[in-house]
Design goal:
This is Mitochondrial inner membrane protease ATP23. It holds the Pfam family Peptidase_M76. The protein contains ten helices and three strands, in the order ααααβββαααααα. It has two domains: 113 residues, Zincin-like (2-Layer Sandwich), CATH 3.30.2010; 77 residues, no CATH class. Helices cover 53% and strands 5% of the residues. Strands 1-3-2 form a three-stranded mixed sheet. By secondary structure, it is mainly alpha-helical. The longest helix is centred in the middle third of the chain and has 20 residues.
């Protein structure tokens, strides 16, 4: 999550004296009855969100590669089913809800196309991980940490331009530092754990998960890199089909 993207997996059954917090407080529309199409169409935020989402899915190479990879893994993504434009807490831009296999896009916080591209990519990486692996989003903080590391590393969250926009200027190893910091922040946003627990989880899985570059095969530092990765992915699929 950026202070921005959160991944709140499904809530468990309530039990004990204190209800677990899985980050759903950040997404208040999750438990509301869906509004009618007519009502939703009257809100500019919703219309804008839908238009930007369509643009991302149609033109963004990061998203296109992830959609193709998920389809090949048996998890085809459908726009109307797997994306939901909703109002969220002011500090987040999106999330992945594993209970519904649905990506939440925060229509009140995503205001430009490049931001939408990054949020969709970040959350599709969580969805891809959910599809290909038995991720225990609720009880194993290392699993959550791994997916957050991958999302920060591969989505463009930590590109040089984005970091400069945050007034963070690169030193040697700055990309890795950015990925680590953002993964820790994501965990803290959606889990009631201490900062020390989040840091320990991230550090214990960092090398393995940072070097897991599927399905890109490389760290895509730009759209050009993502286009090359998408082309390589398509060629890899054709090569494997001919074996």
């Amino acid at each position: 999550m950026e202070q921005g993207e959160a991944a709140p997996p499904a809530a468990e059954e309530k039990g004990g004296e204190e209800e677990d917090d899985f980050g759903y407080r950040l997404f208040p529309d999750r438990n509301k009855k869906p509004q009618s199409f007519l009502v939703r169409s009257l809100f500019t935020f919703h219309n804008r969100c839908q238009l930007m989402l369509r643009m991302t899915l149609d033109t963004n190479p990061y998203a296109q590669l992830l959609l193709e990879a998920m389809k090949q893994s048996g998890c085809t993504v459908f726009n109307d089913r797997h994306f939901s434009c909703e109002n969220c807490d002011g500090c987040v831009s999106g999330g992945f809800d594993s209970a519904t296999s649905q990506i939440v896009l925060c229509q009140n916080n995503i205001r430009h196309q490049s931001h939408m591209n990054r949020v969709v990519t970040h959350e599709l990486i969580h969805a891809f991980d959910h599809c290909r692996a038995h991720v225990d989003w609720f009880k194993n903080v290392k699993h959550l940490a791994c997916s957050e590391i991958r999302a920060a590393n591969l989505s463009g969250d930590c590109t040089l331009m984005n970091e400069i926009a945050r007034f963070k200027f690169g030193l040697k190893g700055h990309h890795q530092t950015c990925v680590r910091d953002r993964a820790i922040r994501s965990i803290l946003a959606v889990r009631k754990v201490s900062k020390e627990t989040a840091e320990k989880a991230v550090d214990e899985v960092f090398d393995t998960c940072f070097n897991d570059l599927e399905p890109f095969g490389r760290i895509p530092h730009s759209k050009t890199d993502a286009k090359r990765a998408y082309k390589d992915f398509q060629n890899r699929d054709r090569y494997n089909a001919n074996l």
